[in-house]
Amino acid sequence: MMIATGTDRAEIREELSTSxxxxxxxxxxxxxxxxxxxxxxAGLRVAMVDAGDFAGATxxxxxxxxxxxxxxxxxxxxxxxxENHRERRALAADIAPHLVKPLTFLVPIYRGGPHGxxxxxAGVFLYSALSVFGDxxxxxxxxxxxxxxxxxxxxxxxxAAAVYGDHQMNDSRVAVMxxxxxxxxxxxxxxHAEVVGLRRSGGTATGTATGTATGTxxxxxxxxxxxxxxxxxxxxxVLNATGPWVDHLRRMEDPDAAPxxxxxxxxxxxxRRHEPWKxxxxxxxxxxxxxxxxxxxxxxxxGTTDEAYEGDPADVRPTEADIAQxxxxxxxxxxxxxxxxxxxTYAFAGLRVLPGGPGEVAAAKRETVLTRGRGGMLSVAGGKxxxxxxxxxxxxxxxxxxxxxxxxxxxxxxxxxxxLPGLASPDAVALRLWTDRERGARMxxxxxRHLATHYGTIAFDLVKLIREDPAxxxxxxxxxxxxxxxxxxxxxxxxxxTVDDVVRxxxxxxxxxxxxxxxxARIAALLG
Length: 528
Ligand SMILES: Cc1cc2nc3c(=O)[nH]c(=O)nc-3n(C[C@H](O)[C@H](O)[C@H](O)COP(=O)(O)OP(=O)(O)OC[C@H]3O[C@@H](n4cnc5c(N)ncnc54)[C@H](O)[C@@H]3O)c2cc1C
Prior knowledge:
This protein is an alpha+beta fold. It has 15 helices and 19 strands. A hairpin with a 4-residue loop joins strand 8 and strand 9 (205-206). Helix 2 (30-41) runs parallel beside helix 6. The longest helix has 18 residues, at 78-95. It is globular, with a radius of gyration of 23 Å. Residues 26-32, 49-52, 55-59, 61-65, 67, 194-195, 241-245, 266, 304, 350-352, 381, 383-386 line the site of flavin-adenine dinucleotide.
């Protein structure tokens, strides 16, 4: 039997439609990817499909924080913070030190602000204690010390700043590395493949409009959005991990299914940066909400909004009002020169999934919602990027112990700390990339650093491509560190099939505002 481990779409479709899987995961955001990875590690035959690109929806629209969640302390959720910290530190130390990087955060405390210095000082102390002071001790510093870390900080009315440590990442790259980890463990995956109906025991398909909710869900009908090809996948168990679309799929299973979630939109802006930022800012806006200003990918990431959303999830995008709100709220703590509209390189929005029911979205708990429908399909949504391994593991344990044991009893133990591909110290990789070539032909240190922190040792595979064709060592756009070898690698080894897959999620061209028509045309030609 053929096993499709490459990125040839026709071959993967063939594999998907001719085998029967133990588990089919619908949705290749970080949650679906994590469960897929865990199931493959347990020795199951698992398939994962996504209607768009892997992490093309919420999972590439986050604030890019790997964090304990300082704001959860306000609701007294100490256990949740400790659990988030544990996962954060595991990712940064053991699972993905090449992709997850430490970052200092300042909470500026202004005269008349929503929280006082004593409360915030105690808050950051407790926050750091809950991660056993692994990132130093949370403390309060003077305005002068704060401005030395963030020269763009507004100092009028500033009384002090609270300091704490967390981590950050490039969410789309961590996601694609996790997809790769799942495939390395034996999963079969396909992006741009939309589930348009569910298979039932007996083989009948039901779509959203005409479906009758009888029988057990035993697979799905799919449409390849790129080629138009239609095919089906058979599985003993189906998991719906479609994030904001979770109720849409639940209604495919059972047209009468009641809503399980509500949505809240969060928008972000990326701006060119004019000064060094040695720390990020977490600025309280009111009792619950904060505004982040985070140095990210040599730029400044600002956000986010939090507003109930009732439209089609596919249509979510930042509006003019979102942009105005983000700039306005950032202006509480960031000087105007750093908040010019002409410096915006990119704006994006995503949808938080909140447990259904009434209440203010900004105060709602960000919890994972797991339900089982009349056709036996499991549906899961919500949670945090930071704890994706933990959530994946918990969901997998639930699947493994369902009544009747549809996954069987023969499951291998999952190892506790399997790293993401490319694991290494990013400093070591950058040094090797920079020094390995002859003088005069050395890799630019900025490019070396960029590759080391986005690929780890996989950067050495990119170097092999450059050795075979030196033109692939050139920058795609002169103003950014992404090189052509990344685009070729994305096409051949990272399931990139559209221009956006490459410019938005495998490289940093779009977020830096460098995906010009010429760049896009050259990448389209490369993808064929
Ligand atoms: C604004 C914002 C900021 C955030 N910031 C942070 C942060 O800084 N740190 C943190 O830890 N967490 C953060 N989060 C939370 C985190 O981003 C989410 O918990 C996580 O990305 C959810 O992943 P998911 O896989 O459930 O959903 P998604 O990433 O949305 O994945 C669902 C997938 O299902 C696919 N799909 C839908 N319908 C179909 C179909 N019919 N067939 C096949 N596939 C389908 C979609 O294409 C999509 O890719 C943030 C969330 C938001 C909204």
